[in-house]
Design a protein that fits this description.
Layout (H helix, E strand, L loop, with lengths): L8 E3 L7 H15 L3 E5 L4 H13 L4 E7 L13 H9 L3 E5 L5 H10 L4 H10 L3 H15 L9 E5 L7 E6 L10 E9 L1
Parallel strand pairs: 1-7, 2-3, 2-5, 3-4
Antiparallel strand pairs: 5-6, 6-7
Helix pairs in contact: 1-2, 5-6
Length: 193
């Protein structure tokens, strides 16, 4: 039976300097709980590659799912996760999901064009009250569920950051976008204060 004592990191500030500690804590907690999937948000691939290295060091037997942004997010028609990095991740057994942000999608286009805010962005802003990394962790878990690469009937660990790197990790029972209210955040492993 997993240890019921939960350790959680509350980092003094967000940022990439928390990445190694966040990834290590996420992997160790997944091992303690017998969780088979860890979802890592990674725009350019550095966080994903660091996660893969720690997987090997810590001998984690679960699956690493890398979630990255859709083509055109930063620059029209361009993927930010380069083909070489994508290939390298896949060759090491990682699943790579490229998807539209679950908590903005097309509504962001309407906001940018006409102003105002839509419901998905209200939800995103609510999660950002915890941290950008918490929002991105939840969003990445939904995106992985939408892609069908993580189960929706067991817990997963989701890791993301506030910009670069990783500073947030959660245990989540995820759900696809159309079943959003089935999603449950079970545990906070790490987040910035």
């Amino acid at each position: 039976m997993p240890d019921e004592t939960v350790r959680a990191y509350a980092f003094k500030e967000p940022g990439p300097h928390n990445t190694e500690k966040t990834l290590k804590a996420a992997i160790e907690r997944a091992q303690e709980l017998g969780i088979r999937y860890i979802v890592v948000a990674s725009v350019g691939g550095n966080t994903a590659l660091q996660a893969k290295s720690l997987y090997e060091q810590l001998k984690y037997q679960g699956k690493l799912i890398v979630v990255t942004q859709h083509a055109g997010w930063a620059e029209a028609g361009r993927l930010q996760l380069g083909e070489e990095t994508r290939k390298r991740l896949r060759e090491t057994g990682c699943e790579v999901v490229t998807s539209t942000h679950a908590l903005s999608g097309i509504s962001r286009s309407f906001r940018q064009e006409f102003g105002g805010i839509d419901l998905p962005e209200v939800v995103a802003e609510a999660f950002r009250r915890f941290s950008q990394g918490v929002k991105a962790s939840i969003e990445s878990a939904i995106m992985a569920a939408d892609a069908g690469v993580v189960p929706i009937d067991e817990d997963i660990v989701a890791v993301a950051g506030s910009g670069e790197g990783a500073d947030s990790a959660l245990v989540i029972r995820t759900a696809s976008q159309n079943r959003f209210f089935d999603l449950k955040v079970r545990e906070v492993i790490a987040m910035p204060r």
